[in-house]
Amino acid sequence: MTLRMSSLFVRTQKEDPVGAEVASHRLLHRAGYIRRSAPGIYTWLPLGLQVLGKIEAIVREEMARAGSQEVHFPGLLPADPYRKSGRWEAFGPDLFHLKDRKDNDYILAPTHEEVFTLLVKDLYSSYKDLPLSIYQVQNKYRDEARPRAGLLRGREFIMKDAYSFDIDDAGLDASYERMRVAYQRTFARLGLPCLPVKATPGAMGGSGTEEFIYPSEVGEDTFVRSSGGYAANVEAVTSIVPEPIDYSLSPAAHVEDTPDTPTIETLVAAANADHPREDRAWTAADTLKNVVCAVTHPDGTREIIVIGLPGDREVDLDRAAGTGMLGNGEVELEAATSEDLAAHPELIRGYIGPGVDLDDQVLGLEGTSKVRFLLDPRVVDGTRWITGANEPGRHVFDLVAGRDFAADGTIEAAEVVLGDPAPDGSGPLELARGVEIGQIFKLGRKYADSLDLKVLDANGKATTVTMGSYGLGVTRVMACIAEEYHSESGLLWPQHLAPADVHIIAAGKGDDIAEAAEKMTAELEAEGITVLLDDRNKVSPGFKFADAELIGIPTVIVVGRGLAEGKVEVRNRLSDEKSDQPVAEVVASTVATIRAAYATADAAADAAIAEGAAADAAIADDAELTESIRADSSASAR
Amino acid sequence: MTLRMSSLFVRTQKEDPVGAEVASHRLLHRAGYIRRSAPGIYTWLPLGLQVLGKIEAIVREEMARAGSQEVHFPGLLPADPYRKSGRWEAFGPDLFHLKDRKDNDYILAPTHEEVFTLLVKDLYSSYKDLPLSIYQVQNKYRDEARPRAGLLRGREFIMKDAYSFDIDDAGLDASYERMRVAYQRTFARLGLPCLPVKATPGAMGGSGTEEFIYPSEVGEDTFVRSSGGYAANVEAVTSIVPEPIDYSLSPAAHVEDTPDTPTIETLVAAANADHPREDRAWTAADTLKNVVCAVTHPDGTREIIVIGLPGDREVDLDRAAGTGMLGNGEVELEAATSEDLAAHPELIRGYIGPGVDLDDQVLGLEGTSKVRFLLDPRVVDGTRWITGANEPGRHVFDLVAGRDFAADGTIEAAEVVLGDPAPDGSGPLELARGVEIGQIFKLGRKYADSLDLKVLDANGKATTVTMGSYGLGVTRVMACIAEEYHSESGLLWPQHLAPADVHIIAAGKGDDIAEAAEKMTAELEAEGITVLLDDRNKVSPGFKFADAELIGIPTVIVVGRGLAEGKVEVRNRLSDEKSDQPVAEVVASTVATIRAAYATADAAADAAIAEGAAADAAIADDAELTESIRADSSASAR
Question: Cα distance from B513 to chain A (closest Cα, Å)?
């Protein structure tokens, strides 16, 4: 059915919506694709549904190609399976929950691992049934503390979530790899530059996981990459841990008065002046900074911890919270408040040091304090530090890790900075920002264990199934495509994702113009080309052009004054070309252009995978993308 | 992609699911189309999604044909617009509601009138923008007290809901009629016999409404029809109200002792023996029975009422509750309990009578009782009754309505019975049961008023828009199709709605059989025919045949022993025909059969509408349907 501007349910707007920070939010609203229903909750207008439908079709085709079968779960789920998996608690306040009239607990599904597990348990019982891959395209619900940026972080959003079921680890590895390729193909067909980066599993659990990141300044995720092909989000970067140092010759620790050393710089200067090292000057990296933080666990309990790290590093609260090393589930981490510190008088601000018993003097955290003390992994045995003596105005010198103090554990809490070494030795890291548009997980047996999904193996023995889970944010992807493809005057879709293939503008009042536009529309539609026809008869050409620029269909045909000479103007907004074409030829040439655009998009997937297992490297090597990441990196480097 | 039984995510089951009462529930579960997630909440397996997709496609095509544009609203909606319309209360406990982390109220949408109204208010401002018709296919949520019968009455279900917006009543009438035709076309294409019946608006509000009923014993709705074309659900049937009777010559009322008259029969016998009428014998229809009932309003308050009706009638609690005459919103009505009666000592069981002051004796409800007294509409002025005297063992005779007593209002509470006259004079009514699969409403200005949706009219004056709303239960329709099309051994879909066009069974172990089945599959798929191929190599032909019968694709091709002679068996389960066909011809003949089936289904819509405005009558005249209704009627007549 022809989309006609005269009747299409759309009204373009000149004004940005209140509070819109990013281009996709502004333009999808102004061009009449979406409307906000509530914070982070959107309604789809006809133009928006057209684009969304094209994206979903590509996602479904690539899932089918990867051998995944579509199913569909409810959005309203009983709470019990999520209690059994521990996620009723782990999701914390992000979980929308409610009771039915019989007082039973329900949740609005944030993701569906538990119920997919139960469904497979219901249907399958033998290793012969595996491997299995099933997926759905479905509404997800998360009560985000700060929904933002339109479709980029919503509270009700569409996700494609797939799940794999295998009898053993080798099977899981193969399922994971197949899905990884499907993601690369999908994003390539969607025209979205994208990088798989190592990530941490968070509340999902499991062993290995990667995020697919669309590099963009509007993203909330910071990730790193090396020129040698390493890529990870900052939560997943691991520090290179040095070898332990022989401390048999290190001097004994000694406490010294250190007046007037309120900062690390003044402390280092005083140390070099009054207590010089025998071998070289003290640097900030020789001081051990102990930072008091407060962890909020999913059940709401608040825990005070101390994080020790080299003095030349800052704590990255988000990174530390995201590592999964602070507890199960989604934790929040913030700097301790003065109330927190008041509750722990043994923690003397500016002079906190690790627990050590030295000359019968209890210095520190161990023994007198109930707080967990976690160390940066670079603080290996034998390293030698200046740190607080747990007395105002005093520091301890030559305190040696492993000899004089220990910790309750390690934590990757230090901010990753430009130039840090990649953990795989592939060179220095650069930083960039991006949007997570997909994440794939080797879940392993976490959910199968907690929900008792077993099948009989070849020997008739009950064996726990191993699982993978594979999410792709469909509505978020649409926002990213709008971020990637727009101009100053509006959206500018890739040809194969535009809400219609061609935008025809009847620019002028004559009946001949209207008739020619109608005829061209009918001829294109007979060839399977979809048309948005601007047939409004009391709207000036200028307004029509502005609407067309805002709506963003790249191929625009203007039927106007030139018609008298048998010509129409064809605009390609992506290449910024305009040409006058004879009316007699324009249908055939347009059909050819549009078909070629679809074919090119499909071929992009093959190209992206052409180099086989090195597909991610291939994407990473893409010159334009690398440039984009570089630009991001320099802009966001801190 | 070929559906292959060897890998398809399905397991058929011999056992019915626990508590399954109806064929659609039993068979959709056993054939592996759906699984229950929670009471009234279902998960869709691949076969189920295929059929659901075909139904949705037909619904969308007919909506587009009717000029309706697709949009999509969230399922999670802010409560505020529903507060403004009064439906936050009116839906009562059927509404799922929850709070977000900021303590704001949200609901899971039961239907979307309010937010569609607000969206149009956001986008449109002029009469020139109208008429508008928009729709969505979307999850709805209702916390039914008694979810039942699988997909027939669920708590999360898929509904197509459309809304029309017009500047005036004539526009609304035209929009309503266009949608009514779209419904008739849709159900005709779906092969579902269906009758539009007059209904009551219930919590929706508005002026006129019709339900589309699929006549079936498994339905919960009782409806009536006359041979002259009248059809209504029992809530909407109106009694024929007789003309008032001149009571100037009626005898005065008098109270009499009536010992030993515990029933209407004994009362009538005693009346005829001891206090005979001058003109004819008293009958049960001359007694006024006063029934004490309790109304539960949506806000939870409980109200005691008395319903007065002729003694030869029973109260139909559901009908009375559904009329909308008892209060706003969804009310529940039940017989008063002994606690209720104890709280109203003035209501003397067996001897309750209407309020009247006679010979200085206060008999009744008025004055001494706080309860509402509502009368059957047949109790018109001048009718003459025997009824309770509000004293044990005594009745009042010759009590004349309008002269001796009045009521607080009327109510259609009497059970409609076989042979009652149709209100339009089109003959006696017969009763049947059915499933409501759609309902269309002329809402009028209720929602536009409460949410202030106005546009400027041709004179620049702000005018309230008038609306219609049009629901169609997509998942319920699928259940009804399964009810209509199944055999003892399984589902048996109309050809064009089957999960695949053809079911090919490789029945035998030879490689030649497997190869021939694969080749035939490829050749059919090359012609656009979808195939479910049973390629399992350790499953016996008998099991494969049983699975095929359960799954219910009508066209089955068996590649088996006959292959040696170059033949395969083609089964049409709908016509119960089998034939051996040469392998060389079977692809061409099958393609022709399948294409013809799709064309026939599409043509059914044209046929259904062919008689123009009399389309509903045409459907009603369908011989098979009439027979089905008759069968229902005789089975359910009470």
Answer: 23
Measure the CA–CA gap between A489 and A486, rounded to whole angstroms: 8
Identify all chain A residues contacting B134, using CB atoms and an 8 Å cutoff.
9
Q: How large is the ipTM?
A: 0.85
| Calpha distance A319→A73 (Å, rounded) | 33
Show the tokens assigned to A311.
Answer: 């003095």
Element (H, E) at A549: helix A541-551
| Structural domain contains residue B567 | yes
The strand ranges marked E within A181-329 are 195-198, 209-215, 221-226, 231-233, 254-257, 287-296, 302-310
Instruction: For residue A103, tell me if it sits in a domain.
Output: yes
Concatenated DSSP letters of B93-141: GGS-EEE-TT--EEEE-S--HHHHHHHHHHH--BGGG-SEEEEEEEEEE
Domain that holds residue B582: 3-7+492-594
The count of CB pairs under 8 A between chains A and B is 134
CATH number (domain holding residue A43): 3.30.930.10
Length of chain A: 638
Q: Report the residue from A74, A100, A115 with minimal CB separation from B96.
A: A100
Which of B10, B15, B37 best probes binding to A when mutated, by most A CB atoms within 10 angstroms?
A: B37
What domain count does chain A have? Answer: 2
**Nearest-neighbour CA in chain A from B252: distance (Å):** 54
Q: Quick one: tokens of A285?
A: 């990296």
Taking the Cβ of residue B72 and every Cβ of chain A, the question of whether any pair is shorter than 8 Å is answered with yes
The token duo for A282 is 């003290």
Q: Give yes or no for a contact between B76 and B188, defined as CB atoms under 8 angstroms apart.
A: no
Question: Could you tell me if B146 lies within 8 Å of chain A, comparing CB atoms?
Answer: no
Residue A338, SS3 per DSSP: helix
Closest CA to B163 of B155, B173, B175, B174: B175
| Closest residue to B100, CB basis, from A7, A132, A143 | A143
Instruction: Say yes or no: A584 contacts chain B, CB-CB below 8 A.
Output: no
The phi and psi torsions of A567 (rounded to 5 degrees) equal -125, 150
Query: pLDDT band at A355, cuts 50/70/90?
Result: low
Q: How far is CA A58 from CA A34, B52, B405, in A?
A: 21, 20, 73
Verify cis geometry, omega within 30 degrees of 0, for the bond prior to A377. no
Report pTM. 0.86
Residues A86-92, mean pLDDT to the nearest whole number: 84
The three-class DSSP label of residue A541 is helix
Q: Write the Ramachandran bin of A327: left for phi over 0, alpha for psi from -120 to 50, otherwise beta.
A: left
> Could you tell me the CATH number of the domain that includes residue B354?
3.90.960.10
Among candidates A49, A67, A119 on the partner chain, residue whose Cβ is nearest the Cβ of B71: A49
Q: For B571-601, how does the pLDDT look when each residue is reduced to its tens digit (9 = 90+)?
A: 999 999 999 999 999 999 999 999 999 999 8
Domain boundary among A420, A455, A484: A484
For A447-483, b where at least 16 C-beta lie within 10 A, e where not — what string?
Answer: bbebbebebeeeeeeebebbbbbbbbbbbbbbbbbbb
Is A101 touching B (CB cutoff 8 A)? yes
For residue B155, pLDDT over 70 is answered with yes
Angle at A310 between CA A305 and CA A315, to 5 degrees: 50
